[in-house]
Sequence to fold (477 residues):
Amino acid sequence: MTATATKKGNPIKHIYAPRGGCLEVFNSREEEVLVSGPAGTGKSRACLEKLMAVCLATPNVRGLILRKTQRSLGSTALVTWRNFVIKEALQTGDVVYYGGSQQEAAQYRFKNGSTVTVGGLDNPTRIMSSEYDIVYVQEATEITITDLEFIKTRLRNWRTSFQQLIMDCNPAGDKHWLKLRCNDGVCKLIESRHEDNPRLFDAEGNVTEKGAAYIAILDNLTGVRYKRLRLGLWVSAEGIVYEEFDPAVHVLKWDYDEEGNRLPLPEEWERYWVIDFGYMHPFVLKCYAYDHEEDVIYMYREIHMTQRLVEEHASQIMSIVTRKETTKWYDHFNKVERERTEVVWIEPKPTAIICDHDAEGRKTFEKHTGLGTQRALKAVNDGIDLHKARLKTDENGDARFYLMDDALVEQDTWAREHLLPTCTEEEYATYAWKVSPDGRIQNEPVKRDDDGMDTDRYMTMHLDFKGKARVTMLDYA
Ligand SMILES: Nc1ncnc2c1ncn2[C@@H]1O[C@H](COP(=O)(O)OP(=O)(O)O)[C@@H](O)[C@H]1O
Ligand SMILES: [Mg+2]
Fold:
């Protein structure tokens, strides 16, 4: 399949050949379509190619690329969009990027008047006030059914003969609302396979060199990640530890001011930092705010990163929470003007910094931040029980532990390329109890992809592990 656009009479050629499920995406006209499959089959590419094809074919089409958060979009779909899909059109000027204004969202503008707006559902005002012909939602398992219904009310620009919401995702649990919606026939499900992607398999179905390397990464995954990302199955993890965790409940959206800046959490809420050291395994540092009055914990910032030194993490976190302020003062004694640079905290200093028991790591972190740390209470099962109690909702649907949306400071590209969790929210979905060969669930979690899990548990333990006998405390020292 080729798409052609012209500039000063010179046709620019863009070649894309979809196969299998990806070809089906192109041919579909249903109002709601979900492309599902394991990682790397070309799902996102197919959706983006279709979006461009529709925009080129008809003038004044309005398209939209959407993800749960604006930031997550930048690191994934937009890279494929710019580097592969509209690459040639950008070079020739047939498509230009417009960065947006206070009233208007960022968008790609085609010569024929078609546009593709880009944005996140975390800050939807500018995006959702418009109408569209075709909307592409990347990683649609991350959005809520309310988001989906809202998006569908925006599909009525009617420049094209069909109005379409295309979504893609890697499979989630078999009871995920989006899968049930497909089972019910409300949404059309298209399955795509690794063989659909010519980067991984040639036209005869032989694996390419790149394909073999990629499949090897997938084969290294375990448990439910393997089943979903390698095999493309909608399966729930067996024996999930935090069954209470529901992203629709426990992940909160930020409030924004009129300029689109996040409103900070109240100053009077105490802050805590919790660290789980690691180098090959992720180093995790999370910042929490504790609303003492309501007894609710909010996790609002997360570093989740492999292969970086403790001193680098220390300087990163300090550059976020403090800034240097230089003030001039007059030295009357020597009769000269002098400057003084002070470190000023932008947000409340942590009341405590709670760490796992890596003495070397703690020493380095303390040295590079000038802040003291303390050891976490590590009792696993007590911690899990207490944390489950915090996640549990009361009769009003309120929990006592929340993650703020898009709290990740920076995405770990190594982890992403190896399809490992890049933030705590992803770990909640797969953190599971060990299962014995005869299928019995054991009373011990699988120690894998659990670094973010540990920090939340340490946080809860720090606040809630009270009233237990002193002798028990000593057991954990
Ligand atoms: N038909 C195709 N021709 C060339 N490259 C492709 C094709 N389909 C996918 N790719 C490339 O393979 C990589 C993975 O595709 P992507 O769409 O991101 O996969 P998924 O969304 O299924 O994880 C991307 O770099 C994409 O450009
Ligand atoms: Mg994708």
In short: The pocket of adenosine-5'-diphosphate (ligand 1) is lined by residues 16-18, 39-45, 80, 84, 168, 197-199 (CB under 6 Å).
